[in-house]
Amino acid sequence: MTELRDKLPGSGDFLLHPGKVLLPDGPRSGMGVVVRDGRFTDIGAAGLVGSRNPDLTPIELPHHLVMPGFIDTHTHLTQSLGKSLVFGEPSEIFRRIWVPLEGSLDERMVYLSAKLAALECLRGGFTAAVDAGTRSAGHINALIRAARQTGLRSVIGLICNDLGGAAVVPERATILKNAARHLAAFEGDPLVHASLAISIPEAASDHMLADVSRMAREAGAVFQTHVNEHLVAVERSLVANGRRPLEHLAHLGALGPHVLIAHSTLVTPHELNLLRDSGTAVAYNPVASLWKGNAIAPALQMAALGIRFGLGTDGTRADGFRLMDAAEGLQRAGFGLATGDSSCGGGWLWVERATAQAADAAALAGVTGAIREGLAADFLLVDLDRPEFTPSHDLMWELVRYGNRDQIDAVFTAGQLRLWQGWPVGWDARALLAEVREVTADAIARAPIQRVHKPSAEHRALGHFA
Description:
Layout: H1 2-7, E1 14-23, E2 26-28, E3 31-36, E4 39-45, H2 46-52, E5 58-68, E6 70-75, H3 93-104, H4 107-123, E7 126-131, H5 140-150, E8 153-159, H6 172-185, E9 192-198, H7 206-219, E10 222-227, H8 231-241, H9 245-251, E11 259-263, H10 269-278, E12 281-284, H11 286-292, H12 299-305, E13 309-311, H13 320-339, H14 346-354, H15 356-361, E14 379-383, H16 395-402, E15 408-413, E16 416-420, E17 423-424, H17 429-446, H18 456-461
Helix pairs in contact: 4-5, 4-17, 6-7, 13-14, 13-16, 14-16
């Protein structure tokens, strides 16, 4: 592996001859892949590609798969410092843990949290992630700086709440001015893409929901919000508006192809039709359902109806392979067992929803998500010389059920090598981990967090099991 690492360029133009390439129509052998100026510029039969690019010496990778990087359609980059505090907690942890924690973070802590989360994303094979917006007080630039330094392609949400749910809630005019500035700040940026966000519909006035959705649509950006995730929020919306949250967004004209709805686990048949007919996209977060949710999003039904959706972590566990496994596994357990569905979409469905379809949901389809000429060279080198892939009879299914992040040898974004065997190239991750360990305890102690359960050892000593 040392020899292979020496062969791989850190950046620049190069030609790969991998054992397999995962193309939009499936895995192929005998292919050449050229990267120039951070993009895929020539993909085809190895001999023809070589003849068209005589200036490049092929890098032979006979036991590796070149595949698109995973895209996390929903995460929280400034929650990494408290990630295990929520284990075993009842729903709506954002009220008791995330809002208090994020609201207490200063600029340095936002930077450290985001950089740690971005590192975890890249280690898990995510070359791009959609951040739902930090609730910290005006430190979004620290988050962006961390994303740039790690090389994680990032869709950064600016929270536009005008009814609470953030450390600082500006006046309406200030929110809209900040939103316009944020949307304009990253035009043409190679790695950072702007988005507008409202934490949950009840955290914003009807006028703000409609205005922010419209602004994002006009700018060609994503408007994102958490919707129909927890039963209590659905009931609050019914009491306040006479409509469920998703219905209320439709009533306000705030849905559309530019909208990315996180979760949508508690959806009625009527609401599924609203998603389909409006072209609204969904972030299906299966691990979040396992760890803290009230329900499982009916992803197979969404796929059958033509509803756009990609996979997201919700900041739970940054491993793209295990995310696909959870996505398929929850559909099998939640719906497939009862109906005798032994395939639950097939391996290809989950690979696509973690890559190309996730890019579509995140408004990145013209940028990344596939090994295709013209797109950014955001890709993984996966070692297939492993017991899990031997013998190989159906690589798409094997990636879903046998893949995990320790099989990823290299992670590239925009044609640059960012990680080699789980560790970054060009910066000291060990120093980051040491700094995070040093400062996190004080940051947690300062935050007005309210946990229902004590840490495991204390909880067990009390004789509680619920």
